[in-house]
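name: query_chain
kind: protein
chains: 1
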Amino acid sequence: MKLSIITINLNDKEGLRKTIESVSAQTFTDYEFIIIDGKSTDGSVELIEQHLERISYWVSEKDSGIYNAMNKGIRQAKGEYLYFLNSGDALYEKTTLENIFAGDPHEPFICGNFYMEQKGKLTPDTSYQGRDWRLSLYDLFAGFLCHQAFFIHCSNFEKYGLYSEELKVISDWKLFYQGIAIDQLPVHYVDTFISIYNMEGFSTQIGGEIIYKEKLQVCRELLSEQLTQKLIRLYYLDQNGFVTDIMKSKKWIYNSFRAFCKIGRILSFVKE
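structure:
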């Protein structure tokens, strides 16, 4: 089997309906469809039962969080690739999977384009086109990859393990960081739109402070403290780069700053 599609859901019946319909409409058929429901009470279970002929495996039971639910799906998956399409997200068109697997790829990661959906408005993102993944050690530290735009080879979970359930929001980012940024595994890009990503989900609502804190936690686990500090410094400079841009755009500010630094070096030398 080429693909396992894993959908997690909790009390989002209409979002789940949208997801099921987009999967069921695919012209590509070499996949299994796994739904992990967190014991919903809004009619989601009844909806699942209405589409059993389209679903390979499902369960509705309490879980301890998003990544616990995803791990349940991973344990059931039999496909060469795993794809996470959360409730409320949708595959872009009926030929999406056919386009992705047309060349029978086997790379560790496959990615493409996606749409971000917020309040009914769709915004396209083609940022993975032509991306130099060799820069990912910093680029991924400073940003994210859209889970719904990536197909993950099952060997990654054999190598790195299941998603960490201790992390609240960046366990998927951690796997990408291990595979793409640190180990520099190949990423195969397909120039097609894969999904419509619902921006109103949990991961897009949680605050940036906890995201940054968890990223530092992961970096200190996987990298040396020296390299982690370098990433922190680069991130700080990147976030405050407008100061440098202003200085460079105004010659008198730039020259004054250079003079200030030169005086500082002279005074430091005199004190010694």
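note: Residues 124 and 232 are 30 Å apart (CA to CA).
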